[in-house]
Amino acid sequence: MQLKPLNTFTVTLMLFFTFLILFFSGFLEFPSVSSSIQQPFSTPPHTLSSKSHPFTDLLSAFRTWDSQMGCAGFRLKHQDLIRFLSNSSGSLQEAGGESSCHQLKMEHVSVLVKGWTWIPDNLDNLYSCRCGMSCLWTKSSVLADKPDALLFETTTPPFQRHSGDPLRVYMDLEAGRKHSGREDLFISYHANDDVQSTYAGALFHNGRNYHVSSYKNNDTLVYWSSSRCLPQRNQLAKSLLKLLPHHSFGKCLNNVGGLDMALSFYPECANDANNPKWWDHLHCAMSHYKFVLAIENTVTESYVTEKLFYALDSGAVPIYFGAPNVLDFVPPHSIIDGTKFSTMEELASYVKALANDAVAYAEYHAWRRCGVLGNYAKARAASLDTLPCRLCEAVSTKGGRNARTE
Question: Of 404, 309, 384, 304, which is closest to residue 113 (Cα–Cα)?
């Protein structure tokens, strides 16, 4: 008997049901949203050497690491990671922005910072910028009597800008950055906005005691300090810290007996012996611990704050919970991204093992000893430290007071 040819509809229907059977049986799998953007080098090595080398002196750990690996070995071992994290990142604006010299319309730009602001006073200066342009950044209306731009941070810019008025600049570096709706230029921590300002620079931590101890506490592994007790952050910190020996300073989960106990533990960390302040301990005290827990207030893309960079600057290894693209902002193999572990128990086990492996621990410091910076160099170049020149370039590109009104 001769078979009738199958029509197109029947064939399509058969293929569709075959596809469904394969999919639900697990032979076919679609990538999730989170896995569709591959980050092959973001997960730290969860297995360490079985050898235990407890240490309390960081310098001795460095010497051991030098003898067993050294900078050449580090570059070879992490060459894929270094290459991956050194490529151009969409998370960071390139220093100098997109404007080239021929796009600059002014040789000199003055920016007047308006109202009360946390912006450090020592940012006030006359800067020599690229392309021969100079930039005056000041809080003084005397020094900038006819500014090209007004910078607002805690107050809202004027509703309207008339022809010949200074450009209105608004800055918001908080999570969930919001435009004022009245600005001509917007500054935030995100690369998609007009001018980016990361937290990676030195000006975010003025007035600190930068004494760094080579001694690392081997009994109390983790430092944590927080005085804004957000429920979710507290719960996350509690779930990890209960598994690790730690000192918790600040108001949240304090287990040391007071807010100023860091200065009692480490008196050499006080900047002013007659009038010690709670923040004097931030870097110096951190340096006595192998790890610093850094948890952002809000988890959102590119919001990588001083909490992480304080820890890096202190010579500790940060255990970080925050921005999903954090690796775009830090040196290769410099932090432990807590989100890459399946459970808190797995993370705690890794931290304990790392604390007893001098060579593996020292490797987290190799970036600064070997000059392997990756995207960290770009994060520093886009920080508050360089903001004056970069903002002045943006103002110059628009033409300052001569910019057209919208």
Answer: 384
Over its length of 406 residues, how does the chain's per-residue pLDDT go in tens digits? 443 444 544 545 554 544 444 433 333 332 222 222 233 344 455 556 656 778 999 999 999 999 999 999 999 999 998 888 877 678 999 876 555 889 999 999 999 999 888 888 889 999 999 999 999 999 999 999 999 999 999 999 999 999 999 999 999 999 989 999 999 999 999 999 999 999 998 887 666 677 899 999 999 999 999 989 999 999 999 999 999 999 999 899 999 998 778 888 998 888 776 666 666 678 889 999 999 999 999 999 999 999 999 999 999 999 999 999 999 999 999 999 999 999 999 999 999 999 999 999 999 999 999 999 999 999 999 999 999 999 999 999 999 999 988 7
**Distances in whole angstroms, Cα of residue 90 to Cα of each of 114, 301, 320, 323:** 31, 11, 21, 14
Residues 55, 216 contacting (CB under 8 angstroms) = yes
For residue 359, give the nearest of 80, 45, 60, 82 by alpha carbon: 60
Closest CA to 197 of 207, 187, 206: 187
Strands (E), 273-357: 291-295, 317-321, 336-337
The tokens describing 126, both together, are 């006359």
Helix (H, G, I), strand (E, B) or coil at 33: helix
Sign of CA dihedral 34, 37, 40, 42: negative
Separation CA 334–CA 342 (nearest Å):
20
118 HSE (CA, 13 A, CB side)? 10
Beta bridge partners of 359: none
Cβ partners under 8 Å of residue 275, min gap 6 = none
Q: How many CA atoms lie within 13 A of 185 on its CB side?
A: 28
CA–CA dist 228, 25 (Å, integer): 48
Spatial separation of the C-alpha atoms in residues 119 and 388, rounded to whole Å: 12
